[in-house]
């Protein structure tokens, strides 16, 4: 390797016609050529290391994305199998009891009792179990099997109650570059796309549900002191006036008019993910229950 470097240095020196300079100047030129060669070598090594590191990062990223997709496919298969047991009854606080869990979700509930439902949008990657935990951040970094996973899970706001039920059920998911979770949710920016995917299916453990997209908008997390509409705090409306006020706020933010309206007493489903267009940005799709 050293002989190759020397040969290269000799070639460079020849281009400068060192014989035309005195001995001191020749030494100075050779010294600069050596320094330049070392810099080029260092840059080459650093660029190679960076390229290898980048390839490793993306390989790892997409490996985890593929693994996550495979796990969800197996969960979807489990959903279709006959339940191991025939009846589930889970006590709530006090004497009230939950209704029976739907047969198709009993096996999943056996695996992880944090599951609260299943979300699916036809012809999209969105076909996932929905989790709910008292810890609002747990499923940001954990999958259905409770393993650490940068994809996280789709999860419901812990303040929502599917049995009450809450006026608005809010579901969160990461905006993954691979498209996993809510990575493709912002495709709803296009009204044409929305019209082809206007219906969302979200089942709770206890009943099936169909929902129709009503509003699509961009927003951001607000300061606690800001007096303004905050979609992520709209979980229950205690009056028709409060409900209508929230509908008006979302209608004004919506990117387009879907023609779908809601009145007090209707139940809503909100899908929320990050939006990189602004700091703490969010991309939001709101749907109304139609069945």
* Helix/sheet category: alpha+beta
DSSP strand count: 8
Helical residue percent band: 25-40%
- Uncertain runs are 56-62, 86-96
Broad shape: elongated
β-strand percent reads 15-25%
Biggest sheet layout: 8 strands, mixed, barrel
Placed side by side, the strands forming the largest sheet appear as 1-2-3-4-7-8-6-5
Task: Explain how this protein is built.
With 291 residues, the chain is of the alpha+beta class. The protein contains five helices and eight strands, in the order H-H-H-E-E-E-E-H-E-E-H-E-E. Strand 1 and strand 2 form a beta hairpin. The radius of gyration is 29 Å and the shape is elongated. About 6% of the residues have low confidence.
Secondary structure topology:
Elements: H1 2-15, H2 23-79, H3 103-111, E1 115-120, E2 127-131, E3 154-156, E4 168-172, H4 191-196, E5 199-204, E6 210-220, H5 240-253, E7 268-275, E8 281-289
Parallel strand pairs: 2-3, 4-7
Antiparallel strand pairs: 1-2, 1-5, 3-4, 5-6, 6-8, 7-8
